[in-house]
Amino acid sequence: MPKLSGVFEELQGLGKLVPQDILKKVEDKSEASSLENFIGNRLLYPQTVSVSVQDQKTDFAILKAYILKNPNFFYPSGGKVTISKEFFERFPPPVKLVTLIVRSINFSEQALLVRKEESGEDIIGTFVPWPTQEKDPQVFLDGQKIQLKKNSLSKINTDPKQYELKIGENFIKSVWGGEIGIIISKKN
Amino acid sequence: MNANIRPRVKQNQVSRIKRRLWGKAQIIVSKGQEIEPQDIIGRSSVSAGFTTINIAKILRVEPQSGEKYLKREIGKIIYKGELLAFKKTILGQKTIVSPTDAEIDRYDSKSGEVWFKFLPKETSLISGVYGIVDMVDKEEGSVTIKTLASEIYGVVGLGKEREGVLEIISQPSQLVNPQAITQNLRQHILVLGSLVFDENLRQAIDVGVSGIIAGGINGSDFKSIAGSLNPFLNTEDIGITVLATEGFGSLPIGSDIYEVLKKHNERYMFIDGSKKKVILPEISPDSMMVLRKTALPQTLEDTEPEIKMDTIKEGIKVRIIWHPYMGYQGKVLTIDQQPTSLPSGISTYLLTIETANQKIKVPYPNVEILG
């Protein structure tokens, strides 16, 4: 049987990340050294899973640094962010993983959020980058007024179906709901 | 529920080893010949390089006129202390003697330097193993010998194939002080415990150690040599061969590997960082009986053994490849039938493993089966 692998094996060029890419401030040389050992062992043993909270935090930080350098990994072409089932299992909970991905990519247009399984793809939501220069425009989802967080990501829980999203006077678009819901970014 | 089986130790393998002569080589064995460890398999003469003296500066003459003061011709041999150059002056004379035994290679009239080529040294190469000569390459100056050996495979390696006497200088989980790497360990292959780090690596290179085996190497040190943390890249040689048996960071050498190394302590062995491999020849005349009966395939290029996958079963031996307990080895006692949510949030099945000192619970993706 071919060998067991893991999601880290899919991250081409992972070995080229430096500690500064991953930790905001790496002052302590021993911290940088531990991090490089961590990444090296992930490359050697990509199938392994984090047991501790700290290890999982490091894994998320590594993934974020990787996406910043390789935004096409989850978003190869416009319109769709595709995340495999294996990534969801390795980086729970799903909302945290999706939020990390959408915060790390520079979107110019809205994107479907899709879970990829062996049997096919399921739409799990939509990401909408802020579409207007209007100050405090009103937001409606299928005619219902929605209150968004200021200067942040807002997640709206939805059923897995299509909705009409209206932001301000000029933005009216069809969006999909699902397990993750609709994520609207208010960041400028 | 599956895990990888990574070959780490293969005992009593019929292996090929290559012994090389440097410089002008004369191979004195032939294909099919049976040889013993003390047999000479070839001789070579190797020049140790060049040295120079600026006679124009010493004699205070222009570089272009320095050659006329030489008292030995270009291309001739001169021995240490013999007269090389002489000049009469108003106050007396100036003499220059040869600093070494050498051939006078040339005179550089631009710099005023005399170039000496050190006289070649004759060396004999002994077999070091019981074996049968498999191939002789006179152009390369090498002899490939079929021999019975134990093979050990690590996970991270640096450097080309080298050889030397194995010297274990620490326990598998100890850190070794660079001061412990002394001049008498020159050309040895050292077992350095849980970590080879920058200071003891530098000390080993300074002393002239041939190779190092340790449980781990720091990622930062590996990256400074290899250019990347990717352990699967081929790297340039740095003058020493290094093999990490477990991974990155300080990790105890696995007991499966350490026990084999102990058996071969103070014996001749071969290490190859690019193949992440160590060959420990069996020093027993009885090995010849096995060798006579065993034919190896024609292809000489050996590759790293393949990592395969197998089902985890109760009673099998495993090694733990992630924290906590990374580097531990033990036996699987039970396999949970229900998944557990780890503190990290990941849901997975746990194994109960019995190590030398305790019973521990480990997620099944964090083990490799010991083959």
What does this entry look like structurally?
In chain A, β7 and β8 (171-176) form a beta hairpin. The longest helix of chain A has 17 residues, at 53-69. A five-stranded mixed beta sheet of chain A has the order 1-2-3-9-6. With 188 residues, chain A is an alpha+beta fold. Chain A is built from five helices and nine strands. In chain A, 34% of the residues are buried. Helix content of chain A is 29%, strand content 26%. With 371 residues, chain B is mainly beta. In chain B, β8 and β9 form a beta hairpin. Chain B is elongated and about 100 Å long. The two termini of chain B are 17 Å apart. In chain B, 39% of the residues are buried. The A-B interface holds A 1-4, 6, 14-17, 32-34, 36-41, 43-45, 47-53, 55-56, 89-90, 92-93 and B 2-4, 155-156, 216, 218-220, 222-223, 228-232, 247-249, 306-310, 321-324, 326, 342-348, 363, 365-366, 368.
Number of helices of chain A: 5
Low-confidence stretches of chain A: none
Beta-strand portion of chain A reads: 25-35%
The helical percent of chain A reads 25-40%
Percentage of helical residues of chain B?
Answer: 10-25%
Main sheet strand line-up of chain A: 1-2-3-9-6
Give structural attributes.
heterodimer; A: 188 residues; alpha+beta; five-stranded mixed β-sheet; four-stranded antiparallel β-sheet; 5 helices; 9 strands; globular; B: 371 residues; mainly beta; twelve-stranded mixed β-sheet; seven-stranded mixed β-sheet; 44% strand
Quick recap:
The complex is a heterodimer of chains A (188) and B (371). Chain A is an alpha+beta fold and 188 residues long. Chain A is built from 5 helices and 9 strands.
Task: Set down the secondary structure blueprint.
The complex is a heterodimer of chains A (188) and B (371).
Chain A: H1 19-22, H2 29-44, H3 53-69, E1 80-84, H4 85-90, H5 94-104, E2 111-117, E3 120-129, E4 139-141, E5 144-146, E6 153-156, E7 162-167, E8 171-176, E9 181-185
Parallel strand pairs in A: 1-2, 3-9
Antiparallel strand pairs in A: 2-3, 4-5, 4-7, 6-9, 7-8
Chain B: E1 2-6, E2 9-20, E3 24-27, E4 34-35, E5 40-46, E6 50-54, H1 55-59, E7 77-78, E8 83-89, E9 92-97, E10 102-108, E11 113-118, E12 121-126, E13 131-137, E14 142-153, E15 156-158, E16 161-168, E17 188-191, E18 195-196, H2 198-207, E19 211-217, H3 219-226, E20 241-248, H4 255-263, E21 268-272, E22 277-281, H5 287-293, E23 308-311, E24 317-320, E25 329-335, E26 340-341, E27 347-348, E28 350-354, E29 359-363, E30 367-370
Parallel strand pairs in B: 1-30, 16-17, 17-19, 18-19, 19-20
Antiparallel strand pairs in B: 1-23, 2-14, 3-5, 4-13, 5-12, 6-11, 7-10, 8-9, 10-11, 13-14, 14-22, 15-20, 16-21, 21-22, 24-25, 24-30, 25-28, 26-27, 28-29
